[in-house]
Amino acid sequence: MILPGKTLGVLGGGQLGRMFAHAAERLGYRVHIYEPSADSPAAEVSAHAVHSLYTDLKALEAFVRACDVVTYEFENIPTESLRKLESAAVFRPKWQILEIAQNRLREKTWLRENNFPHVRFAECEAGGNLAEAIRSIGLPCVVKTADFGYDGKGQQKVTDELSLGRAVASFKGQRAVVEQWVDFKCELSVIVARSTAGETRCFPVAENIHTKHILDLSILPARVAAGIQGEACAIAEAIAERLSLTGILAVELFLADSGELLVNEMAPRPHNSGHWSLDGCVTSQFEQHVRAVTGLPLGDVSLTAPSVVMVNILGDSWKWAGDQCVGEPDWTVILGTPRAHLHLYGKKEPRPGRKMGHFTVTAASAEAAIELALRLKAAL
Ligand SMILES: Nc1ncnc2c1ncn2[C@@H]1O[C@H](COP(=O)(O)OP(=O)(O)O)[C@@H](O)[C@H]1O
Ligand SMILES: [Mg+2]
Predict the structure, then answer these.
(1) Atom 26, ligand 1: residue with shortest CA distance
(2) pTM for the predicted model, two decimal places
(3) CATH assignment at residue 27
(4) Judgement on whether residues 77 and 135 belong to the same structural domain of the protein
(5) Domain presence at residue 100
(6) Å from CA of 150 to ligand 1 middle
(7) DSSP H/E element including 17
(8) Is the pLDDT of residue 321 over 80?
(9) Which domain holds residue 71?
Protein backbone atom coordinates (compact mmCIF):
# COMPACT_ATOMS: atom_id res chain seq x y z
CA MET A 1 0.00 0.00 0.00
CA ILE A 2 1.31 3.41 -0.95
CA LEU A 3 0.12 5.65 1.86
CA PRO A 4 -0.73 9.36 1.75
CA GLY A 5 2.45 11.45 1.86
CA LYS A 6 4.04 9.38 -0.92
CA THR A 7 4.59 10.61 -4.46
CA LEU A 8 2.36 9.67 -7.41
CA GLY A 9 3.77 10.19 -10.89
CA VAL A 10 1.53 10.89 -13.87
CA LEU A 11 2.63 10.56 -17.49
CA GLY A 12 0.72 13.25 -19.35
CA GLY A 13 -0.28 16.75 -18.32
CA GLY A 14 -3.79 17.30 -19.71
CA GLN A 15 -7.05 17.90 -17.91
CA LEU A 16 -7.31 14.28 -16.79
CA GLY A 17 -3.98 14.68 -15.01
CA ARG A 18 -5.14 17.97 -13.51
CA MET A 19 -8.26 16.42 -12.00
CA PHE A 20 -6.26 13.38 -10.87
CA ALA A 21 -3.84 15.73 -9.11
CA HIS A 22 -6.72 17.51 -7.35
CA ALA A 23 -8.00 14.19 -6.01
CA ALA A 24 -4.55 12.91 -5.02
CA GLU A 25 -3.55 16.06 -3.23
CA ARG A 26 -6.80 16.09 -1.30
CA LEU A 27 -5.81 12.68 0.06
CA GLY A 28 -2.38 14.01 1.04
CA TYR A 29 -0.27 12.67 -1.84
CA ARG A 30 2.34 14.60 -3.76
CA VAL A 31 1.88 14.57 -7.53
CA HIS A 32 4.63 14.78 -10.15
CA ILE A 33 3.71 15.36 -13.79
CA TYR A 34 5.74 14.35 -16.85
CA GLU A 35 4.62 16.22 -19.94
CA PRO A 36 6.39 17.25 -23.16
CA SER A 37 4.81 20.70 -23.50
CA ALA A 38 5.82 23.51 -21.17
CA ASP A 39 2.34 24.78 -20.38
CA SER A 40 0.02 22.08 -19.17
CA PRO A 41 -3.24 21.97 -17.21
CA ALA A 42 -1.86 19.35 -14.79
CA ALA A 43 1.57 20.88 -14.14
CA GLU A 44 -0.13 24.04 -12.98
CA VAL A 45 -1.74 22.27 -10.00
CA SER A 46 0.96 19.73 -9.10
CA ALA A 47 3.94 19.76 -6.75
CA HIS A 48 6.47 19.15 -9.49
CA ALA A 49 6.58 18.85 -13.28
CA VAL A 50 9.16 17.64 -15.77
CA HIS A 51 8.97 18.80 -19.37
CA SER A 52 10.62 16.42 -21.74
CA LEU A 53 9.84 13.96 -24.50
CA TYR A 54 8.50 10.48 -23.80
CA THR A 55 11.50 9.13 -25.66
CA ASP A 56 13.99 10.93 -23.37
CA LEU A 57 14.91 7.87 -21.32
CA LYS A 58 17.26 9.75 -19.02
CA ALA A 59 14.64 12.30 -17.98
CA LEU A 60 11.97 9.63 -17.78
CA GLU A 61 14.12 7.41 -15.57
CA ALA A 62 14.91 10.24 -13.15
CA PHE A 63 11.18 11.03 -13.07
CA VAL A 64 9.98 7.50 -12.30
CA ARG A 65 12.69 6.94 -9.68
CA ALA A 66 11.35 9.89 -7.70
CA CYS A 67 7.80 8.44 -7.68
CA ASP A 68 6.37 5.63 -5.56
CA VAL A 69 3.96 4.64 -8.31
CA VAL A 70 3.54 5.88 -11.87
CA THR A 71 0.27 6.07 -13.78
CA TYR A 72 -1.01 7.67 -17.02
CA GLU A 73 -3.54 10.23 -18.10
CA PHE A 74 -2.61 10.01 -21.78
CA GLU A 75 -2.67 6.89 -23.89
CA ASN A 76 -0.14 7.49 -26.62
CA ILE A 77 3.03 7.05 -24.62
CA PRO A 78 5.64 4.91 -26.39
CA THR A 79 5.53 1.72 -24.35
CA GLU A 80 9.05 0.92 -25.54
CA SER A 81 10.22 3.60 -23.07
CA LEU A 82 8.14 2.09 -20.26
CA ARG A 83 9.41 -1.42 -20.95
CA LYS A 84 13.01 -0.23 -20.60
CA LEU A 85 12.20 1.39 -17.23
CA GLU A 86 10.32 -1.56 -15.82
CA SER A 87 12.91 -2.26 -13.11
CA ALA A 88 13.03 1.40 -12.07
CA ALA A 89 9.30 1.99 -11.54
CA VAL A 90 5.98 0.59 -10.41
CA PHE A 91 3.61 1.23 -13.33
CA ARG A 92 -0.09 0.94 -12.50
CA PRO A 93 -1.89 -0.11 -14.60
CA LYS A 94 0.95 -2.17 -16.04
CA TRP A 95 2.25 -0.73 -19.30
CA GLN A 96 1.20 -3.83 -21.27
CA ILE A 97 -2.44 -2.70 -20.85
CA LEU A 98 -1.58 0.72 -22.26
CA GLU A 99 0.07 -1.01 -25.19
CA ILE A 100 -3.14 -2.89 -26.01
CA ALA A 101 -5.45 0.11 -25.57
CA GLN A 102 -3.38 2.66 -27.50
CA ASN A 103 -3.62 0.86 -30.79
CA ARG A 104 -7.03 0.04 -32.27
CA LEU A 105 -5.81 -3.04 -34.04
CA ARG A 106 -4.24 -4.54 -30.93
CA GLU A 107 -7.26 -3.54 -28.87
CA LYS A 108 -9.78 -5.13 -31.22
CA THR A 109 -7.66 -8.21 -31.73
CA TRP A 110 -7.38 -8.60 -27.95
CA LEU A 111 -11.18 -8.35 -27.59
CA ARG A 112 -11.66 -10.96 -30.30
CA GLU A 113 -9.05 -13.33 -28.89
CA ASN A 114 -10.53 -13.06 -25.42
CA ASN A 115 -14.11 -13.55 -26.62
CA PHE A 116 -15.49 -10.17 -25.63
CA PRO A 117 -18.35 -8.84 -27.79
CA HIS A 118 -16.91 -6.39 -30.30
CA VAL A 119 -17.64 -4.75 -33.64
CA ARG A 120 -16.70 -6.92 -36.63
CA PHE A 121 -13.50 -5.56 -38.16
CA ALA A 122 -10.80 -6.24 -40.71
CA GLU A 123 -7.20 -5.27 -40.57
CA CYS A 124 -5.33 -3.43 -43.30
CA GLU A 125 -1.57 -3.57 -42.83
CA ALA A 126 0.62 -0.62 -43.88
CA GLY A 127 0.69 -0.65 -47.68
CA GLY A 128 -2.08 -3.27 -47.71
CA ASN A 129 -5.18 -3.39 -49.86
CA LEU A 130 -7.68 -1.12 -48.11
CA ALA A 131 -10.39 -1.54 -50.75
CA GLU A 132 -10.28 -5.29 -50.24
CA ALA A 133 -10.51 -4.92 -46.45
CA ILE A 134 -13.51 -2.62 -46.89
CA ARG A 135 -15.22 -5.11 -49.23
CA SER A 136 -14.61 -7.93 -46.76
CA ILE A 137 -16.57 -6.02 -44.10
CA GLY A 138 -19.21 -4.61 -46.44
CA LEU A 139 -20.89 -1.19 -46.56
CA PRO A 140 -21.54 0.90 -44.60
CA CYS A 141 -18.34 0.73 -42.60
CA VAL A 142 -15.83 3.06 -41.01
CA VAL A 143 -12.10 3.18 -41.62
CA LYS A 144 -9.96 4.22 -38.65
CA THR A 145 -6.23 4.72 -38.25
CA ALA A 146 -4.69 1.99 -36.10
CA ASP A 147 -2.64 4.42 -34.01
CA PHE A 148 -3.19 7.78 -32.34
CA GLY A 149 -6.93 8.20 -32.83
CA TYR A 150 -9.08 10.31 -30.55
CA ASP A 151 -12.27 12.36 -30.81
CA GLY A 152 -13.00 10.85 -34.21
CA LYS A 153 -9.72 12.05 -35.72
CA GLY A 154 -8.50 9.76 -38.47
CA GLN A 155 -11.91 8.22 -39.14
CA GLN A 156 -13.86 8.00 -42.36
CA LYS A 157 -17.26 6.49 -42.97
CA VAL A 158 -17.64 4.57 -46.19
CA THR A 159 -21.14 4.22 -47.61
CA ASP A 160 -20.62 3.80 -51.37
CA GLU A 161 -18.01 3.44 -54.14
CA LEU A 162 -17.31 7.18 -54.09
CA SER A 163 -16.53 7.37 -50.36
CA LEU A 164 -14.59 4.11 -50.68
CA GLY A 165 -12.32 5.74 -53.25
CA ARG A 166 -11.94 8.81 -51.05
CA ALA A 167 -10.95 6.69 -48.04
CA VAL A 168 -8.39 4.70 -50.04
CA ALA A 169 -6.87 7.96 -51.33
CA SER A 170 -6.74 9.69 -47.97
CA PHE A 171 -5.36 6.76 -45.92
CA LYS A 172 -2.44 6.53 -48.36
CA GLY A 173 -1.46 3.02 -47.34
CA GLN A 174 -1.46 3.77 -43.59
CA ARG A 175 -2.16 0.89 -41.22
CA ALA A 176 -5.92 0.91 -40.65
CA VAL A 177 -8.87 -0.88 -39.12
CA VAL A 178 -12.08 -1.28 -41.07
CA GLU A 179 -15.14 -1.63 -38.85
CA GLN A 180 -18.68 -2.56 -39.67
CA TRP A 181 -21.01 0.42 -39.15
CA VAL A 182 -23.18 -0.24 -36.11
CA ASP A 183 -26.72 1.14 -35.99
CA PHE A 184 -27.14 1.68 -32.31
CA LYS A 185 -29.88 2.60 -29.83
CA CYS A 186 -27.29 4.45 -27.76
CA GLU A 187 -23.68 4.57 -26.63
CA LEU A 188 -22.79 3.54 -23.10
CA SER A 189 -19.65 3.56 -21.02
CA VAL A 190 -18.62 1.91 -17.81
CA ILE A 191 -15.68 2.83 -15.63
CA VAL A 192 -14.41 -0.08 -13.63
CA ALA A 193 -11.81 0.04 -10.88
CA ARG A 194 -9.74 -2.94 -9.83
CA SER A 195 -7.70 -2.82 -6.64
CA THR A 196 -4.30 -4.31 -5.88
CA ALA A 197 -6.22 -7.04 -4.01
CA GLY A 198 -8.20 -7.89 -7.16
CA GLU A 199 -11.52 -6.40 -6.04
CA THR A 200 -13.51 -4.81 -8.90
CA ARG A 201 -16.11 -2.04 -8.66
CA CYS A 202 -18.07 -0.37 -11.49
CA PHE A 203 -19.38 3.17 -11.56
CA PRO A 204 -22.99 3.49 -12.68
CA VAL A 205 -23.36 3.12 -16.45
CA ALA A 206 -23.23 6.38 -18.44
CA GLU A 207 -25.22 7.06 -21.60
CA ASN A 208 -23.08 9.16 -23.94
CA ILE A 209 -24.15 11.40 -26.77
CA HIS A 210 -21.44 12.34 -29.26
CA THR A 211 -21.61 15.27 -31.64
CA LYS A 212 -19.12 15.31 -34.53
CA HIS A 213 -17.41 12.30 -32.91
CA ILE A 214 -16.69 14.24 -29.71
CA LEU A 215 -18.44 13.49 -26.44
CA ASP A 216 -21.12 16.11 -25.92
CA LEU A 217 -23.33 14.83 -23.09
CA SER A 218 -23.15 12.06 -20.49
CA ILE A 219 -26.42 11.09 -18.81
CA LEU A 220 -26.44 9.20 -15.51
CA PRO A 221 -27.84 6.71 -14.97
CA ALA A 222 -28.12 5.53 -18.58
CA ARG A 223 -31.73 5.33 -19.78
CA VAL A 224 -31.57 1.61 -20.54
CA ALA A 225 -33.01 -1.43 -18.76
CA ALA A 226 -31.34 -2.60 -15.55
CA GLY A 227 -30.47 -5.86 -17.28
CA ILE A 228 -28.44 -4.03 -19.94
CA GLN A 229 -26.64 -2.00 -17.27
CA GLY A 230 -25.80 -5.19 -15.42
CA GLU A 231 -24.52 -6.77 -18.60
CA ALA A 232 -22.33 -3.74 -19.39
CA CYS A 233 -20.82 -3.87 -15.90
CA ALA A 234 -20.22 -7.60 -16.15
CA ILE A 235 -18.33 -7.08 -19.43
CA ALA A 236 -16.21 -4.28 -17.93
CA GLU A 237 -15.39 -6.32 -14.83
CA ALA A 238 -14.46 -9.36 -16.90
CA ILE A 239 -12.16 -7.22 -19.06
CA ALA A 240 -10.50 -5.76 -15.94
CA GLU A 241 -9.98 -9.27 -14.58
CA ARG A 242 -8.60 -10.62 -17.83
CA LEU A 243 -6.16 -7.70 -18.09
CA SER A 244 -5.14 -8.06 -14.41
CA LEU A 245 -5.83 -4.35 -14.14
CA THR A 246 -4.66 -2.24 -11.20
CA GLY A 247 -6.31 1.16 -11.55
CA ILE A 248 -9.35 2.21 -13.51
CA LEU A 249 -10.43 1.36 -17.01
CA ALA A 250 -13.14 2.97 -19.13
CA VAL A 251 -15.04 0.70 -21.50
CA GLU A 252 -17.11 2.31 -24.29
CA LEU A 253 -19.92 0.22 -25.72
CA PHE A 254 -22.59 0.39 -28.38
CA LEU A 255 -26.06 -0.86 -27.53
CA ALA A 256 -26.86 -2.03 -31.06
CA ASP A 257 -30.37 -1.94 -32.52
CA SER A 258 -30.24 -5.73 -32.28
CA GLY A 259 -30.06 -5.38 -28.47
CA GLU A 260 -26.48 -6.62 -28.41
CA LEU A 261 -23.80 -4.81 -26.40
CA LEU A 262 -20.54 -4.38 -28.34
CA VAL A 263 -17.30 -3.04 -26.91
CA ASN A 264 -16.00 -0.12 -28.96
CA GLU A 265 -12.96 1.13 -27.05
CA MET A 266 -11.10 0.79 -23.75
CA ALA A 267 -8.91 3.29 -21.92
CA PRO A 268 -6.87 2.39 -18.82
CA ARG A 269 -7.21 5.84 -17.26
CA PRO A 270 -9.85 8.33 -16.16
CA HIS A 271 -12.24 9.09 -19.02
CA ASN A 272 -14.26 12.05 -20.23
CA SER A 273 -17.48 10.07 -19.75
CA GLY A 274 -16.64 9.77 -16.02
CA HIS A 275 -16.35 13.49 -15.28
CA TRP A 276 -19.92 13.54 -13.95
CA SER A 277 -18.61 11.60 -10.92
CA LEU A 278 -16.87 14.74 -9.58
CA ASP A 279 -20.27 16.21 -8.70
CA GLY A 280 -22.70 13.31 -8.86
CA CYS A 281 -21.00 10.42 -7.09
CA VAL A 282 -19.72 9.73 -3.56
CA THR A 283 -16.26 8.96 -5.00
CA SER A 284 -15.02 10.56 -8.21
CA GLN A 285 -13.31 8.52 -10.93
CA PHE A 286 -10.10 10.43 -10.15
CA GLU A 287 -10.17 9.56 -6.46
CA GLN A 288 -11.01 5.97 -7.38
CA HIS A 289 -7.98 5.89 -9.65
CA VAL A 290 -5.80 7.21 -6.81
CA ARG A 291 -7.23 4.60 -4.45
CA ALA A 292 -6.78 1.76 -6.94
CA VAL A 293 -3.17 2.51 -7.86
CA THR A 294 -2.07 3.10 -4.27
CA GLY A 295 -3.76 0.03 -2.80
CA LEU A 296 -6.23 1.97 -0.66
CA PRO A 297 -9.73 0.50 -0.33
CA LEU A 298 -11.97 1.34 -3.28
CA GLY A 299 -14.55 4.11 -2.68
CA ASP A 300 -18.34 4.08 -2.72
CA VAL A 301 -19.73 4.65 -6.22
CA SER A 302 -23.31 5.57 -5.33
CA LEU A 303 -24.95 8.46 -7.16
CA THR A 304 -25.60 11.51 -4.97
CA ALA A 305 -28.65 12.59 -6.99
CA PRO A 306 -31.32 10.72 -8.98
CA SER A 307 -29.89 12.05 -12.24
CA VAL A 308 -26.64 13.71 -13.31
CA VAL A 309 -25.77 15.18 -16.70
CA MET A 310 -22.30 16.29 -17.80
CA VAL A 311 -21.78 18.62 -20.76
CA ASN A 312 -18.40 19.20 -22.41
CA ILE A 313 -17.41 22.80 -23.04
CA LEU A 314 -15.45 23.05 -26.28
CA GLY A 315 -13.57 25.99 -27.70
CA ASP A 316 -16.57 26.42 -30.04
CA SER A 317 -18.41 28.08 -27.13
CA TRP A 318 -15.99 31.03 -27.22
CA LYS A 319 -16.95 34.01 -29.36
CA TRP A 320 -15.32 33.89 -32.77
CA ALA A 321 -14.93 36.39 -35.59
CA GLY A 322 -13.69 34.15 -38.39
CA ASP A 323 -10.75 32.30 -36.86
CA GLN A 324 -10.09 35.07 -34.34
CA CYS A 325 -11.24 34.46 -30.76
CA VAL A 326 -12.95 37.62 -29.53
CA GLY A 327 -14.52 36.70 -26.22
CA GLU A 328 -15.30 33.99 -23.75
CA PRO A 329 -18.56 32.35 -22.74
CA ASP A 330 -20.69 33.93 -20.06
CA TRP A 331 -19.75 31.76 -17.09
CA THR A 332 -22.30 33.44 -14.81
CA VAL A 333 -24.96 31.43 -16.63
CA ILE A 334 -23.64 28.28 -14.95
CA LEU A 335 -22.22 29.87 -11.82
CA GLY A 336 -25.56 31.47 -11.03
CA THR A 337 -27.56 28.25 -11.35
CA PRO A 338 -28.15 26.05 -8.29
CA ARG A 339 -27.06 22.42 -8.76
CA ALA A 340 -24.82 23.35 -11.69
CA HIS A 341 -21.04 22.93 -11.35
CA LEU A 342 -18.43 24.52 -13.60
CA HIS A 343 -15.00 22.97 -14.27
CA LEU A 344 -12.43 24.76 -16.40
CA TYR A 345 -9.09 23.23 -17.30
CA GLY A 346 -6.98 26.40 -17.41
CA LYS A 347 -6.11 26.02 -21.11
CA LYS A 348 -4.93 29.34 -22.42
CA GLU A 349 -5.86 28.96 -26.04
CA PRO A 350 -9.40 28.02 -27.06
CA ARG A 351 -9.77 26.21 -30.38
CA PRO A 352 -12.87 24.80 -32.03
CA GLY A 353 -13.19 21.15 -30.99
CA ARG A 354 -10.74 21.57 -28.08
CA LYS A 355 -11.99 20.44 -24.67
CA MET A 356 -11.76 23.53 -22.44
CA GLY A 357 -13.90 22.41 -19.52
CA HIS A 358 -17.21 20.82 -18.63
CA PHE A 359 -20.21 21.40 -16.43
CA THR A 360 -22.46 19.09 -14.51
CA VAL A 361 -26.04 19.42 -13.35
CA THR A 362 -27.96 17.24 -10.94
CA ALA A 363 -31.74 16.90 -10.81
CA ALA A 364 -34.60 14.76 -9.57
CA SER A 365 -35.16 13.12 -12.97
CA ALA A 366 -33.32 12.52 -16.24
CA GLU A 367 -35.80 14.77 -18.08
CA ALA A 368 -35.18 17.67 -15.68
CA ALA A 369 -31.38 17.23 -15.74
CA ILE A 370 -31.24 17.05 -19.55
CA GLU A 371 -33.56 20.04 -19.93
CA LEU A 372 -31.43 22.15 -17.57
CA ALA A 373 -28.15 21.00 -19.13
CA LEU A 374 -29.28 21.85 -22.66
CA ARG A 375 -30.68 25.21 -21.56
CA LEU A 376 -27.37 26.15 -19.90
CA LYS A 377 -25.37 24.91 -22.87
CA ALA A 378 -27.41 27.07 -25.24
CA ALA A 379 -27.12 30.10 -22.94
CA LEU A 380 -23.31 29.83 -22.73
N1 LIG B 1 -18.39 1.20 -36.09
C2 LIG B 1 -19.10 2.29 -35.72
N3 LIG B 1 -20.43 2.34 -35.94
C4 LIG B 1 -21.15 3.43 -35.60
N5 LIG B 1 -20.62 4.54 -35.03
C6 LIG B 1 -19.28 4.56 -34.80
C7 LIG B 1 -18.46 3.43 -35.13
N8 LIG B 1 -17.20 3.72 -34.78
C9 LIG B 1 -17.24 4.97 -34.24
N10 LIG B 1 -18.46 5.49 -34.25
C11 LIG B 1 -18.87 6.82 -33.72
O12 LIG B 1 -17.72 7.66 -33.63
C13 LIG B 1 -17.39 7.93 -32.26
C14 LIG B 1 -15.88 7.98 -32.06
O15 LIG B 1 -15.31 6.73 -32.43
P16 LIG B 1 -14.30 5.93 -31.50
O17 LIG B 1 -14.02 4.63 -32.14
O18 LIG B 1 -14.83 5.89 -30.11
O19 LIG B 1 -12.98 6.79 -31.63
P20 LIG B 1 -12.29 7.90 -30.73
O21 LIG B 1 -10.98 7.29 -30.40
O22 LIG B 1 -12.19 9.05 -31.65
O23 LIG B 1 -13.17 8.13 -29.52
C24 LIG B 1 -18.08 6.84 -31.47
O25 LIG B 1 -18.31 7.23 -30.13
C26 LIG B 1 -19.35 6.67 -32.30
O27 LIG B 1 -20.27 7.70 -32.03
MG1 LIG C 1 -14.24 6.82 -28.32
Answers:
(1) 213
(2) 0.96
(3) 3.40.50.20
(4) no
(5) no
(6) 9
(7) helix 15-26
(8) yes
(9) 7-91
Each residue of 226-249: pLDDT tens digit?
A: 999 999 999 999 999 999 999 999
* Mean pLDDT on 61-80: 97
* Same-domain check for residues 332 and 348: yes
Mutate to test the pocket of ligand 1, among 177, 183, 264 (most ligand atoms within 8 A of CB): 264
3-state secondary structure of 39: coil
| Residue 233 DSSP symbol | H
Same domain for 325 and 217: yes
Q: pLDDT-based confidence at 266, cuts 50/70/90?
A: very high
β-bridge pairing 69-72 and 155-158:
unpaired
Is the pLDDT score of 153 beyond 80?
no
222, 76, 98, 292: CA torsion to nearest 10: -60
Ligand 1 centre from 254 Cα, in Å? 9
Find, among 267, 345, 275, 247, the residue nearest to 8 by Cα. Answer: 247
What is the count of structural domains for the chain? 3
- Tell which atom from ligand 1 comes closest to the C-alpha of 149: 21
| Domain shared by 360 and 290, yes or no | yes
How distant, in Å, are the alpha carbons of 138, 142, 158 from that of 181? 9, 6, 9
pLDDT at residue 149, rounded to an integer: 65
> Residue whose CA is closest, atom 2 of ligand 1?
181
Centroid of ligand 1 to alpha carbon of 131 (angstroms): 20
